[in-house]
From TrEMBL:
Keywords: Hydrolase, Membrane, Metalloprotease, Protease, Transmembrane, Transmembrane helix, Zinc. One of its GO terms (cellular component) is membrane. PANTHER family: MEMBRANE METALLOPROTEASE ARASP2, CHLOROPLASTIC-RELATED, REGULATOR OF SIGMA-E PROTEASE RSEP. Belongs to the peptidase M50B family. InterPro entries: PDZ_sf, Pept_M50_Zn, Peptidase_M50. It is found in: Membrane. One of its GO terms (molecular function) is metalloendopeptidase activity. Residues 73-116 are annotated as: Disordered. Residues 76-85 have a biased composition (Basic and acidic residues). GO terms for biological process: proteolysis. It is a multi-pass membrane protein. This is RIP metalloprotease RseP. It comes from Faecalibacterium prausnitzii.
Length: 382
C-alpha cells in the first residue's frame, strides 16, 4: 500500500510542477503570437490528442513530465511536432497519424498554424516566453501556500516576541518581549521559519539579531541560546521565547504566502551557496530516487505535508531553471540578452555545443545523485 501511495503522490507532484512550468511557456507564447505546435502532458506514446487552431494538445502514456513544442525552436520535441504539422515535408505527403485514442477528425482550418516561428518574434518576447515557465512555478507555490495557510487551524506565526522565558540565555544576551525580528546573522527574515532556519545554521548557538524595538531598529550582536541534550547525547538549541499569532485575514494570508515563497527560495539559494563553499558535501545531493522517497514520506504524514513539499519542489524547479546555464531557460535568456545588446544572435553552432555539454554535465550530476540515493537506501541512511 505504501508503494502505491508513494507512486500516486510522486506522479501528482511531478506532473503538477512540470505541467504548470510548461503551461507558462505555452500561454505566453500564445499571447505573443508564436506558433505552438504541441502542448503535451506526460511523455512517451500519445494516448489521446486534439488539434485546435494549429496546436496539438496531447496526453501521453508516461504520467511524468511534459513539453511545449514551439515552431522554430531547436529541440527534439519541437522538430518532431513541426514534422507532424508539415507531413508533406516529412513523409512525402502522407496524412497525419490518427491512431491515438478518442480523436475526432479535425478540419484543415483547425490544423493550420496560427502563429509565427519563435525565432521571428522580438527578442523581448522570446525572453518572456523562456522566463514564463519559472514564473508559473512561483505562482503555483504561492497558490498552494495560500491554501495551506488558510486550511491550518492555528493563526499565522508572527516575528514579534510575545514572551522571553525567565532566565533564558537569549533574554540575558539581548532579546526582549515586544521585539520584532527583522534579520538573523544579517539575513532578512520574511517569515517565522526564516528565524528557525538561520538559527539551525549557527554552529555555536549564537547569532546576531536585528530587531525593531519601540519603533527603532536595534542591532543585537552575539545573542546566545540555551542548549539541552537528548538520550543519544545530541545537543539541541532551546529558543527560550514565544511569538504572537496573526489573525488570518485574506490580506495576511496572501502576504504570508508570498513571504513563504521567498523563504523557500532563500533555502534553495543558501543550500547552493553552502555546496559551492564546501559547507555541504556534494555527497548530500539527492536525485530522483531521493525526491520520490521524500514525497512518499510526506504523503504518509498527510496532504498538508505533501503540499508543503510540492511548494519546495516547484520553487526549486523555478529557481534552477533560471540559472544562467546553457541547457536551462536561464541560459537561453542569456543568449537572448547577448542578441538584444549586440543585435546579432549567438551562432547556432555555439549554442548547440554549449547546450549539449551542459546537458551532459547535468546528466552526469543526476547519475551521481541517484547513486547517492541508492547507497543511502541500501545502508538505511534515508
Amino acid at each position: 500500500m505504501s508503494f502505491i501511495v508513494t507512486f500516486i503522490a510522486a506522479v501528482f507532484v511531478f506532473s503538477a510542477v512540470i505541467a504548470i512550468h510548461e503551461f507558462g511557456h505555452f500561454i505566453v507564447a500564445k499571447l505573443c503570437g508564436v506558433q505552438v505546435n504541441e502542448f503535451s502532458i506526460g511523455m512517451g506514446p500519445v494516448l489521446c490528442k486534439r488539434v485546435r487552431k494549429g496546436t496539438q494538445y496531447s496526453i501521453r502514456a508516461l504520467p511524468v513530465g511534459g513539453f511545449v513544442a514551439l515552431e522554430g525552436e531547436e529541440s527534439p520535441e519541437s522538430k518532431q511536432a513541426e514534422e507532424r504539422s508539415n507531413p508533406s515535408a516529412a513523409d512525402g505527403g502522407s496524412s497525419p497519424d490518427r491512431g491515438a485514442l478518442g480523436i475526432a477528425e479535425t478540419s484543415p482550418e483547425e490544423e493550420k498554424p496560427a502563429g509565427i516561428p519563435l525565432n521571428e518574434a522580438p527578442v523581448w518576447q522570446r525572453a518572456l516566453i523562456m522566463l514564463a515557465g519559472a514564473g508559473m512555478n512561483f505562482v503555483l507555490g504561492f497558490v498552494v501556500m495560500a491554501i495551506l495557510i488558510t486550511a491550518q487551524n492555528e493563526p499565522i506565526t508572527s516575528k514579534v516576541l510575545y514572551q522571553v522565558e525567565e532566565n533564558a540565555l537569549c533574554g540575558q544576551t539581548g532579546l526582549q518581549a515586544g521585539d520584532k525580528i527583522l534579520a538573523v546573522n544579517g539575513r532578512r527574515c520574511f517569515v517565522a521559519n526564516d528565524i528557525l532556519y538561520e538559527l539551525m545554521r549557527t554552529e555555536d548557538y549564537t547569532a546576531d539579531f536585528t530587531v525593531l524595538r519601540d519603533g527603532k531598529k536595534v542591532e543585537l550582536p552575539g545573542v546566545q541560546f540555551d542548549t539541552w541534550q537528548d538520550d543519544k547525547g545530541e545537543t539541541h538549541m532551546s529558543l527560550g521565547f514565544t511569538v504572537y499569532g496573526i489573525k488570518k485575514t485574506p490580506l495576511n494570508v496572501l502576504k504570508e504566502a508570498g513571504n513563504s515563497v521567498l523563504y523557500y527560495g532563500r533555502i534553495i539559494f543558501a543550500s547552493l551557496s553552502d555546496l559551492l563553499r564546501g559547507r555541504e558535501s556534494i555527497n548530500d545531493l539527492s536525485g530522483p530516487v531521493g525526491i520520490v522517497t521524500a514525497i512518499g514520506q510526506a504523503a504518509s504524514y498527510g496532504w498538508q505535508d505533501l503540499l508543503e513539499l510540492l511548494v519546495l519542489i516547484t520553487v526549486n524547479l523555478g529557481i534552477f531553471n533560471l540559472l544562467p546555464f546553457p541547457a536551462l531557460d536561464g541560459g537561453k535568456v542569456v543568449f537572448l540578452l547577448i542578441e538584444g545588446v549586440t543585435g546579432h544572435a549567438v551562432p547556432e553552432k555555439i549554442q548547440s555545443g554549449l547546450t549539449v555539454a551542459a546537458f551532459a554535465l547535468l546528466f552526469g550530476l543526476m547519475i551521481f545523485a541517484t547513486y547517492n540515493d541508492i547507497l543511502r537506501l541500501v545502508t538505511g541512511a534515508m
